[in-house]
Amino acid sequence: MRERLEELRVEALAKVAAASDKKALQEVRVAYLGKKGPITEVLRGMGKLSAEERPVIGQVANEVRDAIKQEIDKKEQLFDDAEVEAKLAAESIDVTLPGRPVQRGTKHPLTAVVEEVEDAFIGLGFTVAEGPEVEVDYYNFEALNLPKDHPARDMQDSFYFTEELLLRTHTSPVQARTMEKHKGKGPVKVICPGKVFRRDDDDATHSHQFMQIEGLFVDEKVRMSDLKGVLDSFVKSFFGTDREIRLRPSYFPFTEPSVEVDVSCGMCHGKGCRVCKQTGWIEVLGAGMVHPRVLEMSGFDPKKYSGFAFGMGVERLAMLKYDIDDIRHFYTNDMRFLAQFTGA
């Protein structure tokens, strides 16, 4: 039996060495180390041996089996390594090739406009205030001199959740809340940027959701001339130092007197063109002196304090500054449009 086992060792190792792939190697493993292999057959005949020979032949059989298995494992590892090398060679990366450009994001044009407006007014001593987009009727209307039966409420068709809860129609409630927090003591000098909502049909110049920036300055002896000076400084900062403003009488329930503010046309410089409808002026915002009733409802003594307020649409400012003809471009996420404002 010893001689037969040695013959099997030599024979199996020769076949391992001759195996050309993993499949052939697996066949050698099954043929010599399997349950039906010749080594197993030799071990089954050990019952005919004497008690002294059995451990000797058993030891030789284990040595032969281990030697064959070890060689098979070594050869299999060689095949695995060769396979990995071939795969690496086939999938090699040429590091000298130029990389794919990574597109970098940029600020949305409305965000850029809001930040530019904030910078202009912060430079004039204003601070930025914010408030809830879901507002109560009192702050959205009543605290701004718009009681329940006021006809001016029809100017702002609103999204109501309940009779007392709605999506704010302007950022003026932030002004009312801010004045209330000051408990009748000035000065109050804030701008209030944010989203507002109105039941409007979407078209090239209207949207059911848009952005506003409103401003408020309340203190002793605040005059209309202060309002004009602040707005003139803002317009020159935002549109250019060559631009002028004019004030036209208007009506807003929460200011008295009220004005519409026009800026001189940047295309024709006041001569009249298609953009300004031959007037030389373009309307940009509304403003006025804070109504005494609004001051009183917010806890300020209207005999001691006065103030001015103004409000502007962010989309309108952006459309005028960048010559955009459709407000819907801001909300369609069209990369061809947004890519134009890189570094705006």
UniProtKB/TrEMBL annotation:
Catalytic reaction annotation: tRNA(Phe) + L-phenylalanine + ATP = L-phenylalanyl-tRNA(Phe) + AMP + diphosphate + H(+)
Sequence ranges assigned to domain Aminoacyl-transfer RNA synthetases class-II family profile in this UniProt record: 111-340
EC numbers: 6.1.1.20
Cellular component annotations (GO), alphabetically ordered: cytoplasm
Assembly, per entry: Tetramer of two alpha and two beta subunits.
Cofactor(s) the protein needs: Mg(2+)
Chain residues that bind Mg(2+): 256
Keywords: Aminoacyl-tRNA synthetase, ATP-binding, Cytoplasm, Ligase, Magnesium, Metal-binding, Nucleotide-binding, Protein biosynthesis
Annotated compartments: Cytoplasm
EC category name: ligase
GO BP term, pick one: phenylalanyl-tRNA aminoacylation
Entry similarity comment: Belongs to the class-II aminoacyl-tRNA synthetase family. Phe-tRNA synthetase alpha subunit type 1 subfamily.
Name of the featured protein: Phenylalanine--tRNA ligase alpha subunit
PANTHER family registered for this protein in UniProt: PHENYLALANINE--TRNA LIGASE, MITOCHONDRIAL (PTHR11538:SF41), PHENYLALANYL-TRNA SYNTHETASE (PTHR11538)
A GO term for molecular function: magnesium ion binding
Cofactor binding summary note: Binds 2 magnesium ions per tetramer.
Annotated organism of origin: Alkalihalobacillus alcalophilus ATCC 27647 = CGMCC 1.3604
